[in-house]
Amino acid sequence: MAGLTFSDDVARIDRALVHRWISELSYWAAGRSAATMDAAIDSSRNYGVYDDATGAQVGYARVVTDGATFGWLCDVFVAPDARGRGIGKMLVAGVLADLEPLGLRRVLLATADAHGLYEQHGFAPLPEPDRYLTHGA
């Protein structure tokens, strides 16, 4: 997309900004500590989208993976003032392209409100949701 750059360079991640987005503006991780966010970043594959004109980070996502069989796409976030520019689409497409060479059998995610975005990239409801369990909140 014109004027935007996707990157998998963890050094480009604005950790303070990402922490604010996730801990203050997300519905799934309100109150997450900076230490927890840093640990999550350090233990994941990280992705950002950046505005070419300003250099500012406008999107973030991370994937928790073993690098061979499974991945969990999480903490997908687009800056509120940058929404509507296709950043979410660019972010998800870039993440999936980066993961493709790994040959992961399954990539999961959870969303309360962005089903349409993810369906455009091949995500679908679990075929047998009763086979999956969760532990903790």
Could you walk me through the main structural features you see in this protein, from its secondary elements to its overall organization?
By secondary structure, this protein is of the alpha+beta class. The chain has a single domain, classed as Aminopeptidase, CATH 3.40.630.30. Helix content is 28%, strand content 23%. It contains four helices and five strands; from the N terminus they run E-H-H-E-E-E-H-E-H. A five-stranded mixed β-sheet has the order 1-2-3-4-5. A hairpin with a 5-residue loop joins strand 2 and strand 3. The radius of gyration is 15 Å and the shape is globular. The relative contact order is 0.16. The mean pLDDT is 96.
Question: Which labels suit this protein?
Answer:
single chain, 137 residues, alpha+beta, Aminopeptidase, five-stranded mixed sheet
Second-tier CATH architecture: 3-Layer(aba) Sandwich
**CATH superfamily, called what?**
Gcn5-related N-acetyltransferase (GNAT)
Main sheet record: 5 strands, mixed
Strand content: 15-25%
* Span between termini: 36 Å
Q: Unreliable runs, pLDDT <50, ≥5 residues?
A: none
Instruction: State the CATH class.
Output: Alpha Beta
Overall mean pLDDT score? 96
Q: How many domains comprise the coordinates?
A: 1
* Oligomeric form: single chain
Structural class call reads alpha+beta
CATH topology: Aminopeptidase
Strand order of the largest sheet: 1-2-3-4-5
Secondary-structure element order, N to C: EHHEEEHEH
Can you tell me the overall shape? Answer: globular
Put simply, the count of helices is 4
- Our Rg estimate from Cα atoms comes to 15 Å
How many E strands?
A: 5
Helix content: 25-40%
GO molecular function, one term: acyltransferase activity, transferring groups other than amino-acyl groups
Keywords: Transferase
InterPro entries: Acetyltransferase_Butenolide (IPR053144), Acyl_CoA_acyltransferase (IPR016181), GNAT_dom (IPR000182)
Protein name: Histone acetyltransferase HPA2-related acetyltransferase
